[in-house]
Amino acid sequence: MFKVKVYTTLKAGVLDPQGSAVTNSLHHLGYEGVEDVRIGKVMTLTINSTEDKIEELVKEMCEKLLANPVIEDYRYEIEEVVAQ
Amino acid sequence: MFKVKVYTTLKAGVLDPQGSAVTNSLHHLGYEGVEDVRIGKVMTLTINSTEDKIEELVKEMCEKLLANPVIEDYRYEIEEVVAQ
Q1: Residues of chain A found within 8 Å of residue B26, distances taken between Cβ atoms
Q2: Where are the domains of chain B?
Q3: Any keyword Cytoplasm (chains A, B) (predicted)?
Q4: pLDDT tens track for B10-65
Q5: Which of B7, B43, B49 minimises the CB distance to A33?
């Protein structure tokens, strides 16, 4: 059993309306020092697989569904865990 | 100048409809080994502050806006960067 963390972030230069909205809200709350906010996702997956296949599996899932390769970068961390 | 990463994740036991939707989609794509998916956010903030104030500032922003303390846990990483 594997615990996999997939981090997706918008590529540099891609507009981040959600980040801009958070920046404005923080300014309204008085946090003027905040210059920029970029928002991404962190997905924690529990996957039943074998050691030799897990990395390829994760790459495939990222490319096919979890990340949008046009506007997002992704990275992942794979950790073997004892099945509960 | 500081680069701060704030990670928010749903508390254990809190229903994650987005995670369930991703799990189902992965199953449809043939990735039957995926047992669970939990989705959280990673926010990267650029903040102009001083070393003695930055941590308190980040905690306040998390408690007031960036995380929902009722259903989310949060953690953060603070890194000093050279202003560009």
Answers
A1: 61, 65
A2: 2-14+40-80
A3: yes
A4: 999 999 999 999 999 999 999 999 999 999 999 999 999 999 999 999 999 999 99
A5: B49
Average pLDDT over residues A47-54: 95
Which CATH superfamily includes the segment(s) B2-14+40-80?
Phosphoribosylformylglycinamidine synthase subunit PurS (3.30.1280.10)
Comparing alpha-carbon positions, the chain A residue that sits nearest to B28 is A65
For chain B, positions 29-68, list CB contacts with chain A under 8 A: 29, 31, 33-49, 57, 60-61, 64-66
Q: How far apart are CA A55 and CA B27, in angstroms?
A: 17
Residues 6+ apart with CB under 8 A from A80: A1, A2, A3, A51
Three-state DSSP state, B2: strand
Query: How far is A33 from chain B, CA to nearest CA, in Å?
Result: 5
Average pLDDT over residues A17-46: 97
Question: Distance (Å, rounded) from C-alpha A19 to C-alpha B42?
Answer: 11
